[in-house]
Input
Amino acid sequence: MPQMTMLQAINDAMHVAMERDPDVVMLGEDIGKKGGVFGATDGLYDKFGALRVMDTPLSECGIIGTAVGMALYGLKPVPEIQFLDFIYPAFDQIVSEMAKMRYRSGGQFTCPMVVRSPSGGGIRGGHYHSQSSEAYFAHTPGLRVVMPSTPADAKGMLLASIFNEDPVIFLEPKALYRHGKQEVQEGWYTTSLDEARRVREGDDVTVVTWGAMVPIVEDAAGTAAENGVACDVIDLRSILPWDYDTVLDSVRKTGRLVVVQEAPRTCGFASEVAATVAEKAIDSLEAPIARVTGFDTPFPYALEHVYKPDKKRVLGAIEFTARWA
Amino acid sequence: MAARKASAKAPAAKRRAAAPDPYAVGPLGLFQLVDEDGKAVAQVPELPEGLPERFLEAMLFQRALDQRMLNLQRQGRIGFYGTAKGQEGATLGSGAAFAPEDWLFPALREGAVALWRGMALEHYIAQCFGNGADPTHGRQMPCHYSDRGARYVSLSSPIATQVSQAVGAARAMQVRGEGQHVAGAWMGDGATSENDFHAALNFAGVWKAPVVFVCQNNQWAISVPLSMQTASETLAVKAEAYGMPGVRVDGNDVLACYVAVAAAVERARRGEGPTFVECLTYRLGGHSSSDDPTKYRDESEAAIWEKRDPLLRHRAWLTAEGRWDDAREEAFLAESGKRITDAIATVEAAEPVDRATLFTDVWATMPALLADQQRRLDEDLPV
Output
């Protein structure tokens, strides 16, 4: 199997999808000849042409609005929003239209489409090239919100998303685009959009996370293990709908929970994870639930390294939770 | 542009012309075939057999249906209603110009187009009752119709979102090589201020998409008059900046609306790109059953437009042509009234929506988290 970065795996998935089905089309800003600002759509324009790989005018609301129309008509559009921070002009189309079309039409009209967007920090991008906005979308019934953390998951989940009947917000943790390579299966395969991934087995503390926080949590869990604390690390992968059974099973085993997210604290998805565990598994809890998150501040430029949860903060939370008696 | 030059030569829309061309009138003129008194001011082109009579019937039917539905709202039997009173000509004239295979993206007042294209009257009424007879399970407030068979796409309340969707559908037709189909998008004058309006026309121009934009300029966005909506001389003239022709039509002249939009549809079908058609009309009633226009509008203005009623005008023209008479109208109205009464009775007798439909159609298959929520509801509040 070839070794690929997440970026290469995403690119490969789109090649596979477009070869498989002529109804798969891409649209967005700079995705054609340039191949995207990160190179995610590299080579697609040359291979599939301007009618299927469309450089659009600079309008996020136009990109998503027209993509909704394409999906209604029967295509499988994969619009790219260049940075998640720029998605807000399209919020109306996503929340009011794409997410509700199946429901409001009684299933007469549907929007099978995938909105791809690089998410989170990692490139010193300040407020507008760094945010983790998954919670806004996770608050919208009808959407699937997914965020892979490995190259293999990125490819398998992107293919699963494109050939899924629901509209998907596909968040790509840009910090992991070139984080490292992994063996990725060639050609067609899909990865579940309904199941979390167990990253590491352990009996002492459950650590739930997703996206760019996964390798940081893995690193912290490795050090914790050296200190005698075995973490059960779960990568949610899908934020909505999310696999709480896997989380609950783990908490029933460990009795302790740490949730790590890059996004701001208040009303972040970590809060949903914590609330669900408190509701459904409070009898199993032996320690308070801990959240390690970004802060309730705009995403900073100079202080990005302070804002983002790092190994030290995650390890601190794991050890605090493990010691609680 | 060629259209502008032509309009400069012939600015008087009312002058009788041998071969009326809506594009020649241009975005600052007003394309008209029949004037307020029902007199032809230009040669009415040959229309499909029986179409003018069908227009009058459909307008009469919509007027009667709207009144009955508004009455139901006043009686507390449905929750809300918005009539098309005064705009039936613009609605039906534009809607009839599309073929059954075309895809239509309506705004609030195009329900008559759904019926024209074959949506069942019972479904129209059931959507307003929001009961078990409604194929959309009472999920939206009244007047938000959806009919797959009529290719009448589900309407939402946010303004202008449907306009860019229509452009996307038109683009999909190009991608699929089905450019013989056309997409149609309706909007009101208020919608021209929205982001989606700009995005939609801009994308359509760049893509040369097979789409026709129909703006029902009824001059009021709830309480805000057109003069506070835009400083543009007309709405149609905005089209030029997007690289497409804008056509301004007398929206209370159903034949002119049909001819102008049909020309735009054919142009799109030929692969020549989009057109923006402004139908100048007037909202004779309130915005909806929740609105009282006397609070913000001088009713003497409405009185002027009452005289320009598209229904009166078209009836006068048809009668003068010897194609319509009182007896025919009486018979039609009696039969329509009975149809509406019967349909309301049938629909009103239906069961309330099944509670289980609260949870279906959110995702293609119900995820575990939603199944859990439904199970919990059923435990807490057994059906």
Residues 1-17 of chain B have pLDDT under 50 and may be disordered. The radius of gyration of chain B is 21 Å.
